[in-house]
Design a protein that fits this description.
Layout (H helix, E strand, L loop, with lengths): L5 E5 L3 H11 L4 E5 L2 H10 L4 E5 L8 H9 L9 E5 L6 H7 L4 E4 L4 H12 L3
Parallel strand pairs: 1-2, 1-3, 3-4, 4-5
Helix pairs in contact: 2-3
Length: 125
């Protein structure tokens, strides 16, 4: 039996939030926030098994800055964080992986690709 993960989704676009929630409705427990400050606050007061992070935010910190702040929280040093972004040029994936993200999805992405990433981490939680 699969144990559902608790997932935090940080994206300032409500459509993307709803899409991810729809994709994960049968699989996971999902909490959504719209900016980096809210993501950090959620991580400080809750335990998530996985974080899905938009890179470009109209609401303050970008995804890399938010990731760095979340990694400062002891229980999030090794939690997988997936970069979800419209940055899809050659070298972007490598850049975000070097910045500390555990995975990278270029927008638009499909349900299968998102689920495959999540399944990699279900066995370690």
């Amino acid at each position: 039996m699969k144990i559902p993960l608790k997932v935090l989704v940080n994206d300032d676009d409500e459509t993307t939030q709803k899409l991810i929630c729809l994709y994960l409705a049968d699989y996971e427990n999902v909490v959504t926030v719209g900016c980096g400050q809210e993501a950090i606050k959620e991580c400080m007061s809750n335990s998530f098994d996985l974080v899905i992070m938009d890179i470009k935010s109209r609401n303050g910190m970008d995804g890399v800055q938010t990731l760095n702040k979340i990694r400062e929280i002891e229980r999030y040093k090794d939690i997988p964080v997936l970069a979800v972004t419209a940055f899809a040029l050659k070298g972007d994936k490598e850049f975000f992986l070097q910045e500390g993200f555990d995975g990278y999805l270029a927008k638009p992405f499909d349900k299968k690709t998102l689920i495959e990433f999540i399944k990699k981490y279900q066995s370690i939680t």
